[in-house]
Amino acid sequence: MKHVKQSPYILVVNGTKIRRPVFVLGAPHSGVDFVARALRRAPGFHLTGGHPSVLNAVYAFARQPSLAQGHESGAARLVRDAFAEAWQLTPLSCPRCPPGPVPAREAPEPCEHAGQVTRYGDAGPDLLYSSSALALAFEDAAFVQVIRDGRDAVADMLDDEHSLTWFKPGVANLDGELPNAFFGVETEEDRDEYPGLSTASKCAMRWRSAVRLSAKLRGELAPERLMTLRYEEVPGKEVETAERLSEFVGASVSALELMRPDPDGTGSWRVRLDSVQRTDVEGVARPELTRLGYLR
After folding, report:
1. Cβ(249)–Cβ(36) under 8 Å?
2. 25 pairs with which residues across the strands?
3. Average pLDDT along the chain
C-alpha cells in the first residue's frame, strides 16, 4: 500500500489559520524581552509571553524532558492546545480592548482587533526548553534565538527573585530523568554535585545548558527557520538588525523599537560579580564562553 504523506497540521485561532508563527528563544536574561518588544509593535503581530497555559506546558517539559520527544508523545498536541488558548483575542484577553464589563455572549468571541492580526508568536520565559516540541507542533515555525554573554546573564539572574526561586529546596527537584536541560544537570555527577554548588554556579549551569540547546537547534533546523541575534551587537546596529528581523519574520520591524533609553548592561558583570562568583561562572561555562568569543 502506497504511503500518503499527511498534510501539516494547521491551527486556527480567532478564525485565522496560523502560518509561520515566530518564537523568540534564549537563556534567562539574554535579551528575549528586548527583541520581543520590537516584534510586538510590528503591524499585524500578536506576540504573547508568559500565558499560564504555555508556562504549564513549558514547565511540564522542564520536569520531564522526554515528553518533548517523538510524535507519539503527545508533545505537539500539548503545545498546540496551549497556544490555541494563549493566542485567543477576546474582549477579556485582548491588550488593546478597554477594560470594563463585557456582555456574557461577547466574552468568548473574537474581539474587534482579532481581524487585524495576521501573525502570531510567543516570547515567554524559558520557552527555549520546549523548542523541540515547538518545532514538532509547528512545522513552519520561525525561531529567533538571542545569545548573550553568560556572565552578564548570570549577574541579572542573581538580581532576579523569580530566577532564584528555581534554586530553592523543594523546587529544584532533580530526582527525575537526566539530562535535565532546565537546570543544566546532564550527568549523575552533575546531580551529585548540584546541592553543594554556589548560586552563581547554578545560574551558570542554566545558561550553559541553554547555549547548548541553541547549538543543537541550529543543527536541526534549516537556515530559513532559525535566526540568531547576539545581544551585544544590536546597539549601534539597530537599523541592520531591524532589516534582518523584518526579512526573516516577514513583517516590518522598526529600528526605533530596538533602541534602548537605558544602558544595555553589556560588561556589567565586571562590577556586579565578585571574584568568587566570576570564578564559579567561568569554571562551569568556560567552554561555551570561549566558543562564543566572550572569554579569550
Report:
1. no
2. 145
3. 88
Segments making up each domain of the chain, as ranges: 12-291
Q: How confident is the model at residue 5 (pLDDT cuts 50, 70, 90)?
A: very low
| CATH topology assigned to domain 12-291 | Rossmann fold (3.40.50)
**Of the listed ranges 15-19, 103-107, 285-289, the one predicted with least confidence:** 103-107
CB contact at 8 A, 200 and 272: no
Q: Write the pLDDT tens digit of every residue in 54-65.
A: 999 888 887 777
> Which residue in this structure is represented by grid cell 470594563?
100
pLDDT of residue 26: 95
At 15 the pLDDT is 82
The pLDDT value recorded for residue 113 is: 80
